[in-house]
């Protein structure tokens, strides 16, 4: 008889609004306090102290409009956040400061989270949905120089980009963008040439989230349907369907592969977190704690593998933090 | 300037070591270079042997080695951004590029090694790289820079035959830098684009020869061949058709470069056509050297390997024609090598254009050359990154119990009043819509308290989320409400049919609901708990569509047919379950309010005018209500009213309306007892008969 699924390690309450995005910053050496950043519908970014389980700071930079993406840039003092006020803010949090140092006006009205890629020390590429509904723009940060705009071919009818993932095979190689579109297709873009390398129709409905493992050249995407689609990238840089996995309930709002590529977690509209083994997509656990749609899942970046955590943020205004498969 | 000038000419004794040198090494680099070269000139002309004339060249070499050259380029680039003086730049350009010749002329045998071309130009390449780095930094800082002076330097160096030295430094570094950095790519593209046309050939040739691969070349040159005519000529004509000394790697670079971008692929196709033209030209085969023929064959095969299926499709016929011609003139040749070349190329073309059919096959002895040629075709175009999928051992992760993972169901409301209150929660709203029909039927008493309100909500209900069969669900709920509490709801609905501010859709919904409810009320078989309507329902639910009149016709025909049969069989057909006809008491409430107001147009709704579609639907509805009212008390009064209604509309222009009128009469004849027809409406009936008989008034 299999063990019953574990309970949350702890639960963070007090955002007083639906939680839309989570990001850990636990990689720093002692005495750095492990942190969890959360962005919520009321426009606040909360910085949670994972030792005390209390909010250290609440950042208000998006005019009380929903914050749907938060990422750190390098260390925990440099933060990027994206909100429904159509702005992407860069924060300086060093020495207790809470200042927005710079911001990008995206002019995009959708919910597409931006994607960051570190290309060199202090230099980042950021992919974001642009003002024209079907375009993705790549900026270099912190200079905000526009690198290129990725326009689908005329008549491609992809719709809006829904989710983005910038990556490169290894440091110094060409950056590549995977973008999930409204029509259910995933497109591989060569960022430097600004052209499509491959397109694969993975879903019938808009792609809500995707993640990619560049080591295995394999990625996974979820939509509002009942299936997860796993696809791979061959040597000719063509995307092809690898397999699909049927879910019990429809709707996936977020997918994250753990940094060690062993497991992945999905955030379900059915209020449940699902854990799968990444190699074969074997279902491992269904974590049923939340009472409303889960919006985001995130794995921590603890340098000590035993301390690794999983966090999920939900419409029920709670953040559940789990310790699962931390030993393996 | 004058100060530096005099300094340079000052005799050896008057030169305080450190300060004097620093003047030159930290002064404005352009000026310093001019002064130093001038000093060199004058020193050369007036110099007495051994009088310390070695100072300017010494300084000059220090100048070069301390990276002042890149400072000089930077200075000019900045001037250029602010529109500097072109003559001065031209002079500087000459001085920079011709510096080795200049110095060696002056110094004759005593030229320091740093001024040897093989040392100087790599140094200059390094300076260019440093400068580009500076430019990239300044672009990232948001500053604009002009790069054209560097392009001029590069062009002039290349045309002077020093490609090997300068590009040997530049190309490897730029290949690396452009790999992941788009800004560097842009700088690089700009660098080659700004080279003046007269020097373009040398530069492009240098890049093509030295790039480590097609991919790198594509990053270095961008779409240069599309933008620059000269570069296009060099790449697509000169290097392929006029020259034939380039190595296979260069060919692969060049053609691979053309294939890597859609804009350039059109060039690739054109190149292939031109190559094939040459290959299949009789005189070319006769008069050109075999080496060139081999070169062209290689180019053709590499081109073919880059072609995609649709592109081949687009030029299949041309390929076939040139293949036939080419084979003929190659086989005519007296040289075995040329014959064999023709065979290999023809085989390859036929392999590419015949995906399923038989392919050309010649008999010849394979040698290294043919094997090499064939290998080009087999090659898939190389891509930048190669992925490997490592095979891992089995998962060591133990699954948890997942038996609780069941389908999620939203709780539907249990009370009618909950449904009326409505909910912001869309999931709940969906569940409510889906459950409403059965909920209404289960709680008739509760529904009667709020029936009109509920009917009102349902009539105005719009689709909030995308639910499958929403229209049907809503209609089913409306019918349920109407059958549960017929009189007030029918009164409400019929009054709304003629009131203002409804869409045609809503008015037709009302008609559909009335029909369905009347049907349910009048048919005893619906009293069970069975689903009230099956296939019939969908055909009655008439969304506006072109063939709806046919549907109506069919339904009515079927009914009439069914009814007729029952009459014929007489007593043999027995209703198994008998129960009171619920429609009896309410038929009038359904019928009369509908027939009353059809000739009173309102501002938004004119049945006799442009809204004849609704009129047609109304007529059909009345026909069905008439038919369903069989055996009810009100049937005679209804029949009389209906005949008058038919009479008024008998010349309507819309055939759909007239069809409806015919079914009205049919159902009247079926529903109203014969004695009542004859007694109460003889006159109307005769009029109708003569109308139907085709008599005109």
From TrEMBL, chain A:
The segments carrying the WD repeats are: 200-241, 287-328
Q: Quote the PROSITE patterns the UniProt record gives.
A: WD_REPEATS_2, WD_REPEATS_REGION
The UniProt entry, under Pfam families, shows: WD40 (PF00400)
The alphabetical list of record keywords is:
Repeat, WD repeat
Can you tell which superkingdom this protein's organism belongs to? Eukaryota
Q: What is this protein called?
A: G protein subunit beta 1 like
What is the species listed in this Swiss-Prot or TrEMBL entry? Malurus cyaneus samueli
UniProtKB/TrEMBL annotation, chain B:
What GO molecular functions are on record for this protein?
A: Hsp90 protein binding; telomeric DNA binding
The UniProt keywords, alphabetically, are: Cytoplasm, Membrane, Nucleus
Keyword Translocase included in the entry's annotation: no
Q: Where can this protein be found?
A: Cytoplasm; Membrane; Nucleus
Q: Which domain of life is it from?
A: Eukaryota
* Annotated GO CC locations: cytosol; membrane; nucleus
Which InterPro entries does the UniProt entry name for this protein? ARM-type_fold (IPR016024), TEL2_C_sf (IPR038528), TEL2_Regulation (IPR051970), TELO2_ARM (IPR057348), Telomere_length_regulation_dom (IPR019337)
Keyword field contains Cytoplasm: yes
A Pfam family it matches: Telomere_reg-2
The Telomere length regulation protein conserved domain is annotated at 413-518
Gene Ontology biological process terms, A to Z? 'de novo' cotranslational protein folding
Question: Residues in domain TELO2 ARM repeat?
Answer: 263-360
Show the PANTHER family listed in the entry: TELOMERE LENGTH REGULATION PROTEIN TEL2 FAMILY MEMBER, TELOMERE LENGTH REGULATION PROTEIN TEL2 HOMOLOG
Q: Which family does it belong to?
A: Belongs to the TEL2 family.
Q: What is this protein called?
A: Telomere length regulation protein TEL2 homolog
């Amino acid at each position: 008889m299999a063990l019953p699924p574990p309970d949350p390690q702890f639960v963070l309450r007090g955002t007083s609004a639906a939680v839309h995005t989570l990001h850990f910053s636990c990689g720093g050496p002692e005495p750095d306090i492990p942190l969890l950043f959360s962005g919520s519908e009321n426009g606040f970014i909360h910085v949670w102290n994972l030792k005390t389980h209390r909010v250290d700071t609440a950042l208000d930079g998006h005019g009380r409009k929903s914050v749907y993406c938060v990422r750190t840039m390098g260390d925990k003092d440099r933060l990027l956040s994206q909100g429904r006020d159509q702005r992407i803010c860069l924060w300086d949090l060093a020495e207790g400061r809470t200042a927005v140092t710079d911001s990008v006006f995206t002019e995009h009205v959708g919910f597409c989270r931006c994607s960051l890629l570190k290309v060199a020390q202090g230099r980042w590429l950021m992919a974001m949905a642009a003002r024209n509904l079907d375009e993705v723009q790549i900026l270099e940060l912190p200079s905000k120089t526009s690198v290129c705009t990725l326009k689908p071919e005329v008549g491609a009818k992809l719709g809006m980009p829904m989710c983005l993932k910038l990556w490169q095979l290894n440091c110094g190689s060409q950056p590549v963008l995977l973008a999930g579109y409204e029509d259910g297709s995933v497109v591989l873009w060569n960022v430097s040439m600004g052209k499509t390398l491959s397109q694969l129709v993975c879903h019938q409905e808009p792609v809500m989230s995707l993640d990619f493992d560049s080591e295995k050249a394999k990625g996974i995407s979820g939509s509002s349907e009942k299936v997860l689609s796993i696809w791979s990238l061959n040597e000719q840089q063509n995307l092809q369907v690898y397999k699909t996995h049927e879910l019990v309930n429809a709707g996936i709002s977020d997918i994250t592969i753990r940094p060690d590529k062993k497991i992945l977690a999905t955030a379900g509209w059915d209020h449940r977190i699902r854990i799968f083994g990444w190699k074969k997509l074997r279902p491992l656990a269904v974590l049923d704690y939340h009472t409303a749609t889960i919006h985001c899942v995130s794995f921590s970046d603890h340098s000590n593998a035993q301390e690794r955590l999983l966090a999920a943020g939900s419409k029920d205004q709670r953040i559940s933090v789990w310790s699962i498969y931390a030993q393996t | 300037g004058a100060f530096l000038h005099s300094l340079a000419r000052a005799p050896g004794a008057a030169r305080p070591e450190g300060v004097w040198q620093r003047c030159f090494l930290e002064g404005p680099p352009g000026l310093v270079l001019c002064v130093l070269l001038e000093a060199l000139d004058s020193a050369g002309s007036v110099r007495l042997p051994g009088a310390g004339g070695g100072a300017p060249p010494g300084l000059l070499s220090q100048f070069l080695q301390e990276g002042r050259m890149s400072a000089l380029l930077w200075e000019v680039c900045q001037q250029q951004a602010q529109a500097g003086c072109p003559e001065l730049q031209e002079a500087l350009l000459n001085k920079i590029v011709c510096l080795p010749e200049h110095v060696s002329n002056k110094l004759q045998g005593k030229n320091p090694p740093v001024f040897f071309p093989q040392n100087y130009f790599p140094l200059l390449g390094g300076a260019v790289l440093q400068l580009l780095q500076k430019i990239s930094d300044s672009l990232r800082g948001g500053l604009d820079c002009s790069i054209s002076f560097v392009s001029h330097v590069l062009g002039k160096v290349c045309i002077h035959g020093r490609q090997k030295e300068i590009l040997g430094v530049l190309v490897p570094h730029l290949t690396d830098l452009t790999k992941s950095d788009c800004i560097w790519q842009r700088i690089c593209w700009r660098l080659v684009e700004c080279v003046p046309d007269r020097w373009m050939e040398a530069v492009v040739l240098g890049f093509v020869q030295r790039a480590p691969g097609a991919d790198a070349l594509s990053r270095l040159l961008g779409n240069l061949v599309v933008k620059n005519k000269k570069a296009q000529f060099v790449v697509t004509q000169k290097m392929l058709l006029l020259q034939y000394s380039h190595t296979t790697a260069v060919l692969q670079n060049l053609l691979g470069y053309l294939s890597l971008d859609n804009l350039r692929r059109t060039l690739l196709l054109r190149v292939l056509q031109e190559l094939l033209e040459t290959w299949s030209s009789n005189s070319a085969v006769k008069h050109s050297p075999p080496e060139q023929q081999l070169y062209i064959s290689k180019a053709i095969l590499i081109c073919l390997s880059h072609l995609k299926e649709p592109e081949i499709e687009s030029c299949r016929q041309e390929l076939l024609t040139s293949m036939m011609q080419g084979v003929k003139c190659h086989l005519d040749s007296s040289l075995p090598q040329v014959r064999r070349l023709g065979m290999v190329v023809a085989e390859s073309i036929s392999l590419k254009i015949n995906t399923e059919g038989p392919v050309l096959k010649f008999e010849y002895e394979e040698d290294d050359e043919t094997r090499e040629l064939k290998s080009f075709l087999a090659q898939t175009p190389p891509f930048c990154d190669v992925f490997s999928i490592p095979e891992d051992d089995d998962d060591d992760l133990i699954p948890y119990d997942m038996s609780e993972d069941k389908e999620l169901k939203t709780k539907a409301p249990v009370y009618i009043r909950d449904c009326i209150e409505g909910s912001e929660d869309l999931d709940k709203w969906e569940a409510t819509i889906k459950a409403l029909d059965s909920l209404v039927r289960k709680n008739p008493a509760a529904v009667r308290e709020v029936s009109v309100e509920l009917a009102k909500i349902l009539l105005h209900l719009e689709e909030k989320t995308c639910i499958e069969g929403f229209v049907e669900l809503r209609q089913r709920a409306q019918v349920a409400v109407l059958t549960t509490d017929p009189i007030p709801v029918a009164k409400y609905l019929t009054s709304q049919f003629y009131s203002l501010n409804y869409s045609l859709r809503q008015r037709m919904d009302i008609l559909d609901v009335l029909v369905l409810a009347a049907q349910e009320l009048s048919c005893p078989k619906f009293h069970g708990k069975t689903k009230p309507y099956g296939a019939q329902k969908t055909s009655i639910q008439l969304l506006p569509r072109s063939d709806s009149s046919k549907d109506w016709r069919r339904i009515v025909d079927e009914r009439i047919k069914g009814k007729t049969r029952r009459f014929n069989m007489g007593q043999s057909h027995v209703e198994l379950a008998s129960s009171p006809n619920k429609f009896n008491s309410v038929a009038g409430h359904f019928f009369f309010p509908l027939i009353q107001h059809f000739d009173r147009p309102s501002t938004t709704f004119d049945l006799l005018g442009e809204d004849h579609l609704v009129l047609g639907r109304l007529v059909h509805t009345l026909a069905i209500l008439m038919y369903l009212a069989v055996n009810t008390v009100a049937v005679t009064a209804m029949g009389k009213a209906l005949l008058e209604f038919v009479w008024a509309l008998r010349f309507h222009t819309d055939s759909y309306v007239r069809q409806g009128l015919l079914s009205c009469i049919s159902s009247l004849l079926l529903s109203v007892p014969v004695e009542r027809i004859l007694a109460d409406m003889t006159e109307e009936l005769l009029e109708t008969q003569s109308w139907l008989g085709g008599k005109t008034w």
